[in-house]
Amino acid sequence: MKRHMEEVVPVVIAPARFVRIGPISEAATGITEKAQHQKINAGVWTEGDEWVKGPDGRRYLDLVGYNAWVSMTPPRDERAIVASALDVIGDRMATIRSKAAAGATSHWIVDELAELESLVRKLQTYR
Which residue in 1, 21, 37, 124 has its CB near the most CB atoms, within 10 A? Predict the structure, then answer.
């Protein structure tokens, strides 16, 4: 009796942009699940950039944001420039805080302070 051989066609499944932190995100990044949660808790990865909170309350890694985070690590010779930029930003933040404490309550101070703090968190990962 002759058997018919069916052709096997490989199937490639593209990962979703958002992957729940766990074995799949660990396999995609090479970073353990525990280390991923530590990066989030330490503020190295920020919500809305490298990760999001799903409607189920769980954390999901944004693979687009993760790849952007990985690719923005400057070469070692640029670390001194980044450290200098952090110092300048820190001084500017102190000035904004003092103006806000003195009674200046305009929205641009609050917006600029939030933007600078977000930038500082990202730059601190380079040190």
Answer: 21
Structure tokens at 97: 């805080």
- Say what the pTM is: 0.50
Residues in the chain: 127
Say how far apart CA 93 and CA 19 lie, in whole Å: 35
What backbone phi and psi angles, to 5 degrees, belong to 89? Answer: -65, -40
**Distant-in-sequence contacts of 31-40, Cβ < 8 A, 24+ apart:** 36/61
DSSP 26-77: HHHHS--HHHHHHHHHTTSS-BTTTEEE-TTS-EEEEHHHHHHHHHTPPPGG
| Torsions phi, psi for 65 (to 5 deg) | -65, -40
Cβ–Cβ under 8 Å, residues 25 and 58: no
Q: Residue 55 class from Cβ within 10 Å (0-12 exposed, 13-18 middle, 19+ buried)?
A: exposed
Domain boundaries, the chain: 18-71, 76-124
What tokens does 113 get? 């302070």
**Predicted pLDDT of residue 23:** 92
Q: Which residues pair with 18 in a beta bridge?
A: 62
